[in-house]
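User: Could you walk me through two proteins back to back? I'd like the raw sequence and the C-alpha cells for each, with a short line separating them so I can tell where one ends and the next begins.

Assistant: Of course. Protein one, sequence then structure:
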Amino acid sequence: SGGDVERRGRSQPWCTCDVVPAAGCAESAREIGAGTMGLTYEQPTVDSICRRLRGLIQESFQNHLYVTAIFYADKLVSLSHEVGDLYTLAECYFKNREYRRVLHLLKKHGDATRDDGRLKLLAAQCLMECRDWDECLRYLEDNTSADDTVDSKMASVFALLRGKVYEVTENQENALIWYEKAVQFDPYCHEALDRLIGNHLLTLDKEVALLGSLKLHQEDEWLRHLYAAKLVASRASASAVLELPPREAQLTQVSGDGILARDYPTQHLPRDLAQNGHTLAAQSTRYFYEGDYKECYLISKQVLEDDPYHLAALPVHVASLVMLDMKTVVFYVAHQLVNAYPSSSVAWFTVGCYYYLIKKYEHARRFFHKALTLDHSFSPAWIAYGHAFAQHDESDQALAAYRTASRLFPGSHLPWLFIGMEYVRTNSLQLAQQCLECARSLAPSDPHVYCEIGVVAFYKKNYALACDLLREALRLAGAPDETFCSNLGHAFLKCKVYDRALEAFEQANRLNPRSSSVLVGIAFTLQLQGKLEEAIEYYHRALSIQRDDAFATDMLNYAVQEAADRPIDMEL
C-alpha cells in the first residue's frame, strides 16, 4: 500500500494548473508577441496610454468601482510622475478605506506631498480615520499655517480638522478657537458652523455675534436665518436678542406670496426650503424645549417620513417619543437605526432610551455608554446617562455625568438644572441653589428652572417666595403644567391659602386625572377646609391608584374618625 501512495503522489501533482510543455510555451509566447511586434513604447505612446488610463479611472470612480480604479491608478502613477495622478491614486485608496495605504504612499512620495495642499489634507484625514489623534495634530501643526490667506477655502478645511481633533481629545477651548477660525476663513463651512451654532458650545451672546459676523453673499441671507432658527430652537431667550417676532405673531404673519408663515424661519427662506428637513428639524427642536412634545413629535415625524435616516432630526424625535411614553415606536426606531447605522451614536442612544422607558436602567446605562464611546460629544446621551443613574439613586455617578455635560457644553443650562435637581433630592439645598442660579443665568426664561428654585425655597420654608417662583414658572410655560400646578398647590397649603391651593390641585388633576399624589393633595386641602365627605372620597380615589400610599391611608383614617366624631344634626 505504501507503493500505491507513492505512485498516486507522482501521478497526482500538488499543483492543479495545467502543465504546458516547454515547446508549446515558447510557441504561445511567439503568438502573443506577434500582435505587438513593431510597437515601441516611446513617450508619445506612453502619454496616450496615460490618457486612456485616466479615462478608465474616471469611469470606474463614477461607477464606485474603487478596486478597479486603484488597479489602473497604480499603473498610471508608475507611468506618469505628475502630482495629480498621485493624488488620484491616494484618493482611490481613501475611498476604498485603505487609510494606512494612503499614508504609506504619501510618505513614499514625500517631496510631492510637501508642496501640494490636497495631499496634505488627505494625509490629515487618513490620520483622523485611523484615530491617531496625536500624530494628526502634530502633522497639522507642522504642515499648515494659522494665517494662510492664499487659499482661504483650504485654510478653512485645515482649521476645521484641527478643531475636530481638539474636540475629540476634549480640549474644548482650542476646538472652539479653530472652529471659529474655520468660519472666518470660509463663512460657508457648514461643519464648523453646525458645531458652533445651537450646540451650546458658546454663550448666547457669542453665538449671536458669530451669526452677525458671517460675510455671506447678499442672496444667501436665508442661510443666516436657517442657522438662527437652530439657535432659537435650543434657546428661548435668543428670540429677543435676535429681535424676532413672538410666536403668536409668527403664526399669523402672511408672506408676500400669500403663504401662511407657520414658524420662524419660514418667512425668510425660499418657498421650497420651508419644508426642508433642516428647517423642520429646527422647528421641532423649538417645540421640544417649549414642552410641546406632541407638536415636536408630529413635525419630526414629518421629516423622518420623507427621510427615515435624517440624523439632525432623530435625537429630538426620539426624545419626544420618550416624553410621550411611546415605547413600541422607540423600539421600532431603535431596531431600524441599529440595522442601518451600527456605528452611529444616535442608534445606541435610541436603544438606551427604550430600556429607560421600560425601567431597565442598568441596560439603559450600558447602551448610553456605548453611544458615548462612539461619539464623546453627543450631548443627549450624557444627559440620559445621568438620568439612568439618578433613577437608581446613584447620585455620585449621576452628578459625574451631568458635570461632564456641563464641561463639554458650557452654553447649555440643562446640566446645571439636573445637577441642582439631584442636589435637591439629596437635600443639599445650598448647592442646589447655586447650580440652579447658574442655570437661570444661562436660560432666564426656562420655566423648569423657576420651578426647581421654587422647590428649593419651599424646602427652606420660604413659602411666599416659593409661590411667586412657581407662578412665574407657570407664566413662562404659557400652558398649564401638572408638576408646576401641583407644587404651587403645596406652596399655597403652607401659606394657608386653601382656596388657591385647591384651585391649583384641581388644575393639575385636569391635566393628569390618574395622578395619586394630586388626588391626595385635593383630599388633604378639602380636609383642612372641613369638607370631610369630599376629602374621604378623594382619598379613596387616590388609594385605588396607589394602594401603598401611607400618608393617604393615615389621613383617610383621621378623616373617617373626625367625621364619626361630628355631632349629628337631628333637625328635620
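----
Protein two, same layout:
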Amino acid sequence: LKPLERPTKTESSRRFQQSLGMSSSTPYALAGLATVLSIVIAAASVTKDVGRPEWQSFGTNTGCGRSAAASSASGVQVGSAPSLDVCERWCADAGDSCKAVEFNMATMSCRLFARGVRQVHISEDAECLRKLEQHDTEVFVMLPLDVISAPQNITDPSGLEAMFDGLQSAGVDGFMVDVWWRLSEPRPKEYTFTAYRELFEMARARDWKVQVVISFHQCGGNFGDKCDIPLPDFVREAKDIWYKDASGWESHEYISLFADDVDVNGRTPLAMYSDWLDAFVAEFSDELGSLVADLMIGMGPAGELRYPSYPLSRWKFCGIGEFQVYDKHALESLRSAALAVGRPDWASPPPPAHVGNYNSRATDTFFFTTGFAADFGRFFMDWYFSALKRHGARILGIARRALGDRAKISGKISGIHWWYNYRSHAAEATAGYYNTNARDGYAELAEIFAKEDALLDFTCLEMKNTDNPEDCYSRPETLVMQVVDAAKTQGARFSGENALERRDEKAFMQMMRYANYAEAFTYLRLAPDLVEPDNLRNLGAFAAAAK
C-alpha cells in the first residue's frame, strides 16, 4: 500500500485556516478513504458498508446559521467561487477545521464554517451544506449500574480492572457509566465527583473514551435494575412534584416534567439540572471532548425521554401502561390547554374505564380502539406529547448551553415495541409518544434533537419482529427503522443500544444491521460472563465489524 499523499492546499483554504489561528503545519484529516470490513460471526458474514455521502444539503435558498447575521459572524468569507463544487473542495482541503459551507450563486461567493451547522435561515440564491465525515461506529460497553456505590466508592475495583483487561482485548472504544444525582450532589449545590474521576482515569490508562449518563433519575424500579439509588433527599422530601396515575399512586423515579418550573427549596428542577451540569463541566473541563466523549442527559425514568407509564411494580409485559397526568400541575396544564381551544369539557383526562390500566390490552379499551381518533383523543394525546417534547427541548438546550461544542450531547428514546403494530400505538401513547393519527412522533422528537446537535440514542436494536408473542403486536425492527429514518430526515445523529442483556451471536448480528446509520453502539452490560472466551470473542468480532 502506498502512503496517502497530503492534499495540496489552496489559497482559500489557507486563508480560512489562518482565520482560525492555525499554522500551515496543522495536520489534515485524510478524507475520501472508504473501506469495507467483513468478518465472520459463527459462519455468518456480517458486512458494514462505510461508504456515505460526503455532504448533506439543507436545500436551496438556505443560509447557514439561524440568521444572516449569525452566518456572517461564524463563517469566513474566503473569496469568489465559480461553483458549489469548488466551495466544497476548499472545505475538504481545510480538513477537520471546516465543517460546513455556504455558496451564494448570485454573488458567486463561498463562506466556510469551523463548527457544524445545526440551524439554517432563508437566503435567496444560497445553499448551505454540512460535511458528513466518514467515520467508524464506536462501540462502548455499559458498566454495572452500581459500579459507584455510596458514599462515592468504586465497587470491587480489582474485579473491575480484571474485566477491563478482558474488554481491552475485544477492541472496544470505551465504556458508559451512570453518574447518579444522589451520589454526586448529596446536599444542595455540594458536588463531589471523586470516585467518578478515579473511574475515568481507568479509562484513560487504556486509551478509552467515556460516555457519561447524567442520571437525574433513581436507580431501581426498571427492567434490569439491580441497585437502589434514590434521588437526593432534598428532592425526595418535596411534595406535589411527582407523576401520579389515576389511582393516586406517585412515581418518585423522576421529577414530573409538569413541575419543571415549580420552586423546590429555592430552585426549580430546571435550575437544579443546570447547576449540576455547570458543576460537572467545571470539574472535567480538561477532559471534555477527549476522555469524556459524550454526555447523555437523563430526561425521564431510566434516563429516557418518556413518562413512567410502565413501572415494574405495577406493570408486566405487554400491558399498555397508564397515562401519568393526575398530579396537580399536570391537571392545571391540561385545563389551561382545554380552555385555550374553547373546550372546557376537555379539561379532564380520559377516564380509567375508557383507557384501561397498566396491564390492559389495547383491544379491550374504548380509548385505544376508537377514542384515540376522535377530536378529544387527538387533543389529549397532542397535549401530552407536546409537554414531553417541550421538556426534552429545554433539557437539551440547558446541556448545550453548559457544554457549548466541547463534547457531544445525547438523549435516549425508549424502544416501546409492544403494541407498535396496532393502529393506536397504545403503549407508545401512554409513554408520551404520539405516533398515530398520521403523526410521526419520532420525526417530531428527532427535530428537537437536531436543533441542539444531540445524538438520538435508541434501544432494542438486538430484537427481531418475531421475538415476541404475536398478540403483543410487537415490531421492534420496524420501529427501529422508523426512528432511523426520522433521524436521517430531520438531520439528527443516531446511536443505539440493546435493551436486553444478550450474548448470543444472533443479537450481535441484528445490531450490525444498523451499523451504517449509527455513530455509536453501546452494549448492555459489563458482567463477569461477558469476559468469558466465547462471549468476548463475539463482542470483539462485533467491535471489529463496526469499524
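Residues 1-10, 20-53 have pLDDT under 50 and may be disordered.

Let me know if you want the two compared in more detail.
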